[in-house]
Amino acid sequence: MIDKSILPTEMCVREQWICWREENRNGDLTKIPVNPKTGDFASSTDDRTWATLEIALEYVSSARADGIGFVFTSTDPIVGIDLDKCRDPETGRPDPEAKEIVQQLESYTEVSPSGTGYHVLIHGDLPDGRNRRGGVEMYDQSRFFTVTADHVDGTPTSINERQDALEAVHEEFVAEDDTNDKIDATGGRRGDSGQSQTLDLEDEVLLDKARSAGNGEKFDRLWRGNTSGYDSQSEADMALCCLLAFWTGGNRLQMDRLFRQSGLIRGKWDDVHHADGSTYGEKTLERAIAATDDFYEPTTSTVETSVDTAANTDSDTASPLEAGIAEPSSEGGDRVYLEEKNDLLETRIDELEQTIADQRDQIEQLTAERQQLRSIVDQQESDLEDTTEPPSEKDGDSSSLRTRMKRLWRRS
Asked: How far apart are CA 41 and CA 36, in angstroms?
């Protein structure tokens, strides 16, 4: 049972709690986020699926979930550092690297549910660039941490401001130059001009757009973990990643962050599967970006609804135009909008035509089955009539005549 008195107060008072349940997905144990208010799938990008700590604890106490989790958001100052596979669960001893990181961060630290890692919570701003390498991951939004309240002795019981330490740990254990000439430092795809094409759509806005698109039903099905129509889950993983590549402009960090919140996430995502040391997830994202030829390019008005506008930022902040997003004229904006809408309508028409064709095939198949069943029923009714039909008078006379002939034969 979790002792909430051990948890930092600032976490307890926030309505950013979910539950999680461990499930076996294709041989991998995966922690599935659960809405403690409904029992449905929870999302770290949808605050409607979050609850208070008390509600989350009550849900776990009813044995309907395995644990609780805290969701990081852009509105709180908390950064989570996940140290994986660095602690001996038998002795409780950390490996040298993990020990160094925990001591350097000097903030609230607890043992992970598996007993083989640590979760460190601090106040700070996550540095730009990649957010994971090896067994070290850092998150500040759109992600949840499992919470155990298994506090590590010798570490603070409060969440402390540790910006300098965060930057130092990030620089030493996470940051790494990317030599891929097609991918920039933030994970965005580069065009021929070398200018980053990374979009900065908020996760919630991106998901809404993806679900509302012509292939939104397909996206939502994959997002919820439905792999029907694919020969393997790996193919479904690739399909969702290609869709995410389109909507994020090839931003690997955002793609990874979003995929981890989908129903397809499984333990295999972080397993090293390649000789170069890359994980299954990293290679899947890389291949998805390479396979995506076209990327979403919103109009300026779309961007301004998903990020802070220039009017709400410092004067030194680049405007959308300066950031490489051309602000179209009214005529140009209308044309782009109409072209985009036309593409969506054409896609929708193709989908509807295919649906109609499939339904026609089903109707023909059902009609044939109905006719076959009708023939069987008619034959059974006919057989039943033959077995229950009373003998006719003629048959009776014939039977009587045969009986008399037999008697005469015996007498002779």
From this structure: 9
